[in-house]
Each structure stands twice: as structure tokens, then as C-alpha cells.
Amino acid sequence: MTSRIPGFYRLDPDARLAALSERAVVPSECVERYRTQGLTLQDADLMVENVISTFALPNAVAVNFRINGVDRFVPMVVEEPSVVAAVSNMARLARVSGGFTADADDGVMIGQIQVVGVTDVEATVAAIEGARDELIACASGIHPRLVERGGGMRGLEVRHVRYDEPGYPPEDMVVVHFLLDCVDAMGANMVNTVAERLAGPIESLTGCRVALRILSNLADRRLARAEVSVPASAFGADGEQVAADIASAWRFAWADPYRAATHNKGVMNGIDAVCLATGNDWRAVEAGVHAFAARDGQYRPVTSWRFEGGVLKGRIEVPLQIGVVGGPIKVHPTVQDNLQLMGVTTARELAEVMAAVGLAQNMGALKALATEGIQAGHMRMHARTIAATAGAVPREVPHITARLCGEGEFSVERARELLDEIRSAG
Ligand code: MEV
After folding, report:
1. Separation of CA 365 and ligand 1 centre (Å)
2. CA 185 to CA 257: how far, in whole Å?
3. Helix or strand or coil: residue 306?
4. What are the pLDDT digits (tens) for 64-114?
5. Ligand 1: residue whose CA is nearest its atom 2
6. What CATH number did the domain enclosing 240 receive?
7. What is the pTM of this model?
8. Centre of ligand 1 from the C-alpha of residue 61, in Å
């Protein structure tokens, strides 16, 4: 199966679905569901409180991805034009050298239990450390099915944390971190349950009060990585310059947090869109990625780009707390269909895809910024909306869009004139 469908972007949504169905990546029952129904109001009402309706967004498919030697279509839910086109273009360039390689850690999440009112830090730490095995055994019994699926407790660490904000009285706390491998689930509920259950035993051991019991979204035991190498020639005649400029744009982000924030926003354009398409908690992923980006004390880019020996080499490493089971994933029919379309069955595979998408999205943004700027692409997409607003039917849109872009004139009036012109020419 190849994820290359030349001209996919020129098709209408029905024809795109048909093209995917012909390649057997979308079974016929999914085609029908994609066409006719997404989340029902009844199911939405079970997901959150105070529901009055559902809210639709574009569900698009990025093409051309090859990750660890496997071709994949990638569903992306996003409202911003150019994101899907850019990532698909970069995935096409990456194919020249075999696509992306990616890997991800086990699904280990961190739970935090905060012990407060600590007067003797050393004794409190020692009391918890001395009972580590019993605490792990107690936690292991909480989710027996998780253990059957290959997950479960992976460790327990005790940390001394000091609040020492200038001008206020300092405060010592002891924080227990337990590590729970949630395998194919994001795991928030499982982690929070363990955190709450361990609170009582920890209070008994220490004689201190437990305050917060909650997962940490800085999921740095659950990292995903992707790499890509693109020969400069893949970027066209002035490819050496483009590749060098991409690497230079990355150095700017490394050195300057103001640029790094925008750089990482571009990475998250891709990762968030796949999170949404797969029913994952993108706020958790965002929180984790940005906290991880600041781990050395300065906020840095989560990717790196170096141009060496005629080859542009990109790398990403990000915490990805995502799952393919549990929560809204089970309830939302489009999420199920999207997972099937992507062909991923494990959280590890999904994290690998997300990492590759984040890297490709970043390459697309930096390439655009290093060359024509991002407005040209945005205006091309905007021209389609203008054509439709002027009354063009889907088969007329590409022609009107091409003319508007060629003339650099993006008004509805001009689109109407062009429409009259092509209609009167028959
Ligand atoms: C826009 O959504 C994302 C970019 O600003 C990212 C970047 O500047 O690297 C283009």
C-alpha cells in the first residue's frame, strides 16, 4: 500500500473517500459513516456536561507519509489552512530518502503525591523509601487488567521539593513520583486512581498530610522521537541555500525563546491535529511538550535541523501522552474510523506517527519561511474560499483559484468577473 495519491488535493471530498476506499484503507462501512454521521448528540451528551449541540471541524487526510518503512495516511482535524498541504508536501520530499524513522518509549506516566507539613524532610523521605516495595505492591493491585496487558508499576521515586519564592516564607514538601506504564491508554484516570489510593498509606507512613494526588503532564518518561534526512537537491535548484536557511532558522529558535515559541507552535499544528483526529487530550500533550521544551532552563525548540554534507537532517523528541483506547476514543465513531484509516493499533505506533508529523510540519513551516514566506501559501488557500464565495461550484474553484493567484488579486469582485468569463466561454 502506498500513501502517495498524486492529485489527491484536487479531488472533491467524495472522490477522496473513494480513492482511499479503493486502496482498502477505508472499509465501506467507514466510508458511509464518514459521509453521513459523526458524533451523535446522545453520545456527546455522555461525554461532557451541559451539551447543546456538536461542533464540526474539517477532518482532512495528509498523504505521502512513510514512517519506519510503512506508508500511512494521517487524519488531521484542524481549522488552519495550509497545515495539511504543507505536511503532505514535506512527507513527499522525505520519501526521496525513505521517509521518517521514529520510535517511542513505553507508555509510562508519572503520578505525583504531595506530602505537606513536613518538619523532618530526611525522615519523611526515608519512611517512604523504606516502604517502596509495599507501596508498589499496593499500587500494582489496583489495575490488574493493566498488568495482564503488559503494563503496571515501573517504579517509585521520592523527591524533596522546596518552595523558596523570594519575599515569602520557604516551605519543604516531599513529593512521591510513581511510574505507571499505561500501555495503549493515555492513562490519566488510571494514574489518578493510583495516586488517590496511595495517599492513605503514605499518610500512615509519614504522619504528614497528603495534599495533591494527580498525574504530571510533564510526561518525560513517555518520549517519542522521529528523524528525517533530506538531500538538498530535493528542495529544487537552490536546494543548498534552502537547506542552509532551514538550519539557520532553527538556530534562531534555539537561541531565542520568542522565536522558539512560534517554532514549536508550528510543530504543534501537526501534532494537535492528529491528537484531535484520534480523540486525544491535546491540552495535556501541549502542556507536556512546552514544559519539556524548557527543561534546560531556557525555552528551546523541540526539533533540531542541521545541514551537513549536502543533507538536511531533522530530529524531534517530545513527550506524547496519548492513547488508542479509553475515554472519548471509544465513543466517537470518527475517531475509530480515523485510527483504522491510519492503520495504527497501539499507542506506540500513534506516538511515532505524531512525532513524524510534528517534524514534517516544522520542516514545512521553516521551508516556507526560508523561501517565499508563509503568506503565499495562505493566500492560495484563501483564494479557494474567495472563489467559493463568488459562487464557483467545486469544478470551477481550481481554475478561479489559479487565476486569482496568478494575478495576485484576491477579491470576490475579481473572482466574480473570472467566473462570468469562464461561464460565457462555455
Ligand atoms: C503558523 O501556524 C505556524 C508558523 O508560524 C510556524 C513557524 O513560524 O515556524 C508558520
Report:
1. 6
2. 33
3. strand
4. 999 999 999 999 999 998 999 999 999 999 999 999 999 999 999 999 999
5. 266
6. 3.90.770.10
7. 0.93
8. 20
